[in-house]
Protein backbone atom coordinates (compact mmCIF):
# COMPACT_ATOMS: atom_id res chain seq x y z
CA UNK A 1 0.00 0.00 0.00
CA UNK A 2 1.40 3.35 -1.04
CA UNK A 3 0.76 6.57 0.82
CA UNK A 4 0.67 9.89 -1.01
CA UNK A 5 1.67 11.71 2.18
CA UNK A 6 5.09 12.46 3.61
CA UNK A 7 5.19 14.26 6.95
CA UNK A 8 1.53 15.19 6.54
CA UNK A 9 2.04 16.85 3.14
CA UNK A 10 0.97 15.42 -0.20
CA UNK A 11 4.14 14.23 -1.90
CA UNK A 12 2.59 12.20 -4.75
CA UNK A 13 -0.43 13.75 -6.46
CA UNK A 14 -0.73 10.78 -8.84
CA UNK A 15 -1.59 8.55 -5.88
CA UNK A 16 -4.07 11.13 -4.55
CA UNK A 17 -5.66 11.22 -8.00
CA UNK A 18 -5.91 7.41 -8.05
CA UNK A 19 -7.53 7.39 -4.60
CA UNK A 20 -10.08 10.05 -5.58
CA UNK A 21 -10.81 8.25 -8.87
CA UNK A 22 -11.44 4.99 -7.00
CA UNK A 23 -13.59 6.74 -4.38
CA UNK A 24 -15.80 8.44 -6.98
CA UNK A 25 -16.17 5.55 -9.42
CA UNK A 26 -16.02 2.43 -7.23
CA UNK A 27 -17.12 3.44 -3.72
CA UNK A 28 -19.44 6.44 -3.99
CA UNK A 29 -20.63 5.59 -7.51
CA UNK A 30 -20.96 9.25 -8.47
CA UNK A 31 -19.97 11.50 -11.32
CA UNK A 32 -17.96 14.32 -9.70
CA UNK A 33 -19.27 16.74 -12.36
CA UNK A 34 -22.67 16.53 -10.68
CA UNK A 35 -21.63 17.18 -7.07
CA UNK A 36 -20.04 20.12 -5.24
CA UNK A 37 -16.97 18.95 -3.30
CA UNK A 38 -15.81 19.63 0.25
CA UNK A 39 -12.20 18.74 1.04
CA UNK A 40 -10.84 18.69 4.59
CA UNK A 41 -7.30 19.99 5.01
CA UNK A 42 -4.87 20.44 7.91
CA UNK A 43 -4.45 23.92 9.33
CA UNK A 44 -0.83 23.94 8.19
CA UNK A 45 -1.66 23.18 4.56
CA UNK A 46 0.38 25.34 2.17
CA UNK A 47 -1.20 27.48 -0.55
CA UNK A 48 0.53 25.34 -3.20
CA UNK A 49 -1.20 22.22 -1.84
CA UNK A 50 -4.59 23.98 -1.86
CA UNK A 51 -4.06 25.13 -5.44
CA UNK A 52 -3.10 21.64 -6.63
CA UNK A 53 -6.17 20.08 -4.99
CA UNK A 54 -8.40 22.72 -6.58
CA UNK A 55 -6.72 22.21 -9.95
CA UNK A 56 -7.43 18.48 -9.86
CA UNK A 57 -11.04 18.93 -8.75
CA UNK A 58 -11.89 21.59 -11.33
CA UNK A 59 -9.78 20.56 -14.32
CA UNK A 60 -9.87 16.77 -14.16
CA UNK A 61 -13.07 16.01 -12.26
CA UNK A 62 -15.00 19.11 -13.43
CA UNK A 63 -16.50 19.64 -9.97
CA UNK A 64 -19.10 22.44 -10.11
CA UNK A 65 -17.94 23.89 -6.77
CA UNK A 66 -15.23 23.29 -4.19
CA UNK A 67 -14.78 24.28 -0.56
CA UNK A 68 -11.53 23.63 1.29
CA UNK A 69 -12.27 23.44 5.01
CA UNK A 70 -9.83 23.21 7.89
CA UNK A 71 -10.00 19.96 9.88
CA UNK A 72 -10.35 21.87 13.15
CA UNK A 73 -13.37 23.81 11.89
CA UNK A 74 -15.07 20.63 10.70
CA UNK A 75 -14.36 19.00 14.07
CA UNK A 76 -16.00 21.92 15.83
CA UNK A 77 -19.07 21.79 13.59
CA UNK A 78 -19.32 18.00 13.99
CA UNK A 79 -19.61 18.47 17.74
CA UNK A 80 -22.48 20.90 17.19
CA UNK A 81 -20.57 24.03 18.14
CA UNK A 82 -19.96 27.20 16.18
CA UNK A 83 -16.98 28.09 18.40
CA UNK A 84 -14.57 25.80 20.18
CA UNK A 85 -10.95 25.09 20.96
CA UNK A 86 -9.59 22.17 18.96
CA UNK A 87 -6.23 20.73 19.96
CA UNK A 88 -4.58 19.07 16.98
CA UNK A 89 -1.69 16.76 17.75
From TrEMBL:
<protein>
    <submittedName>
        <fullName>Actin-related protein 4-like</fullName>
    </submittedName>
</protein>
<dbReference type="InterPro" id="IPR043129">
    <property type="entry name" value="ATPase_NBD"/>
</dbReference>
<dbReference type="Pfam" id="PF00022">
    <property type="entry name" value="Actin"/>
</dbReference>
<dbReference type="InterPro" id="IPR004000">
    <property type="entry name" value="Actin"/>
</dbReference>
